[in-house]
Amino acid sequence: MPSTLLRTVHSVINRSPPQFLEEVLLVDDNSDREQLKQELDDYITRFDGKVRILRQKEREGLIRTRSNGAKNAKGEVVIFLDAHCEVGYNWLPPLLAPIAKDRFVIVIF
User: Fold this and answer.
1) pTM score, two decimals?
2) How far apart are CA 102 and CA 62, in angstroms?
3) For the chain, how long is the longest CA-to-CA vector?
């Protein structure tokens, strides 16, 4: 199991105020790594639907993959994280505050 990816997922779930977190969407750019297939599907069931996986049928590259993720995201705000990112406590409210004031703003942290 890819521990770096799981640390990212767990940090987002555990360190985000629940009222602000609609979902964690993992986007698979048609990876050939076996541990990112059924084993990961089985693992994310522990999150009761809060984490889901979008799998691409073919490799499309970073930008198209993220765009597809954004199109399929359920939340009103989309935040992109790489698989190796671990968030800290209280990371989300400062990112959402400028958006709450003006929904057309883009926040880069």
Assistant:
1) 0.91
2) 28
3) 43
